[in-house]
Amino acid sequence: MKILTVSDEVCKGLYDYYTPGKLDGYDLIISCGDLKPQYLSFLVTMTHVPLLYVHGNHDGRYAKTPPEGCDCIEDKLIVYKGLRILGLGGSQLYSGDPHQYTESEMRWRIIKLWWKIRKHKGVDIVVSHAAPAGVGDADDYAHRGFHEFLKFIDRYHPKYWIHGHVHMNYGVDMVRVNEYNGTKVINAYERYVLEIPNEEISDTKKKGDIDYGHYSR
Length: 217
What we know:
alpha/beta; Purple Acid Phosphatase, chain A, domain 2; six-stranded mixed beta sheet; five-stranded mixed beta sheet; 20% helix
């Protein structure tokens, strides 16, 4: 499966300088937030494949102008062609604007997803705006990652964690792909293409070694 992931910055090559065929061959598009709704609507129109999104900390505009033809997966677990995909958008609370959360608020969001994760016997891809703490986040207050995301990975072991929020041009030492406890953590800033082998997708249906006891409060 070939997945186009986008976040934070419009890719001019796919939008301003788009030419027919540039968006061919994708099976799915995932947005990690902070992109204008018109851009997402354009992508879904040109590809004719589903576009799943979560909110970034600057996406309060979506309340009045949601991306047309796209599907919000905030606090949802959906299955697409065998992949179990979960959405946890937003950033750390730093200014009080919409789609900002404290650690305890994010923890409560995760607790409420417990039954859905159990029902589907796990999750393969988590889509967030912020990064897990210490794994692709930044040092400044607004771009800190969530410690609750580390706990989620330790517990449920998703194959992929896709996030945005931290721009790749923030520093020369920025790393796009990290790994934490067996989970590949990917920064989707502007765009990143994720290709998942078919055999890896089929393997997701065989998982049964996760402890699905209640997520502790």
